[in-house]
């Protein structure tokens, strides 16, 4: 909440403005702030925000090569790990009950940046949602908790936010062994 863009995202109540898209697409901005913006936008927007961001990224970053790809395919092949994980997270929040496509792209982002705590966290959060949807909450909890054990992770999020993230996931793991 100490970042003006995150406050703005909360005030917009689910709307992804042009200014916020520019902030998310800017390669010099920190990933944890971009993810906080997306989190503040919230969920259940019926794919509108993710597709809006996808069109914006495609138009501004010109991901296509000499071949003609779709916007999603271009992001998949040519997008940065930051752009991919931001789109994946926004897509997961747009349709919380259908996150398979979001998870697929988060795995691609994770392959590009395997040591990023932020990318690991979002990818595992999306994966957890897939597992919960098939009634595998305990497995989801153990998979998400495995981030704590990774020794080669680069902390690219504010340390103050970490307890809140794990508190949410720990509540899912109650009753699991």
Draw up the topology in text.
Blueprint: H1 4-11, H2 18-25, H3 31-41, H4 48-61, H5 71-78, H6 81-94, H7 100-112, H8 117-133, H9 137-145, H10 162-172
Account of the protein in words:
With 177 residues, the protein is an all-alpha fold. The protein has a single domain, classed as Serine Threonine Protein Phosphatase 5, Tetratricopeptide repeat (Alpha Horseshoe), CATH 1.25.40. The chain contains 10 helices and no strands. The protein has helices at 4-11, 18-25, 31-41, 48-61, 71-78, 81-94, 100-112, 117-133, 137-145, 162-172. Helix 6 packs antiparallel against helix 7 (100-112) and helix 9 runs antiparallel to helix 10 (162-172). The radius of gyration is 16 Å and the shape is globular. 32% of the residues are buried.
CATH architecture: Alpha Horseshoe
Distance between the termini: 35 Å
User: Average pLDDT across residues?
Assistant: 88
The CATH topology turns out to be: Serine Threonine Protein Phosphatase 5, Tetratricopeptide repeat
Low-confidence stretches: none
Helix content: 55-70%
**Protein structure class:** mainly alpha
Q: Total helix count?
A: 10
CA-atom Rg in angstroms: 16 Å
What's the CATH class, please?
Mainly Alpha
Number of domain units: 1
Q: Shape from CA axes? A: globular
Strand proportion: under 5%
Order of helices and strands: HHHHHHHHHH
**Would you report the number of β strands?**
0
| Largest sheet entry | none
TL;DR?
It is built from 10 helices and no strands. The chain is mainly alpha-helical. It has a single domain (4-172), classed as Serine Threonine Protein Phosphatase 5, Tetratricopeptide repeat.
């Amino acid at each position: 909440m100490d970042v003006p863009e995150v406050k703005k995202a909360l005030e917009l109540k689910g709307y992804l403005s042009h200014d916020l898209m520019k902030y998310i697409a800017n390669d010099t901005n920190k990933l944890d702030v971009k993810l906080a913006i997306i989190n503040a936008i919230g969920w259940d927007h019926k794919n509108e925000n993710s597709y809006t961001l996808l069109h914006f990224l495609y138009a501004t970053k010109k991901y296509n090569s000499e071949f003609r790809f779709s916007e999603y395919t271009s992001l998949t092949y040519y997008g940065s790990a930051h752009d991919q994980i931001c789109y994946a997270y926004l897509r997961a929040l747009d349709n919380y009950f259908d996150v398979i496509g979001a998870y697929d792209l988060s795995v691609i982002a994770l392959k590009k940046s395997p040591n990023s705590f932020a990318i690991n966290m979002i990818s595992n959060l999306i994966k957890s949602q897939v597992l919960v949807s098939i009634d595998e909450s305990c497995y989801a909890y153990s998979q998400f908790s495995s981030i704590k054990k990774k020794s080669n992770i680069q902390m690219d999020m504010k340390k103050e936010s970490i307890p809140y993230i794990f508190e949410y996931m720990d509540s899912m793991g109650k009753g699991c062994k």
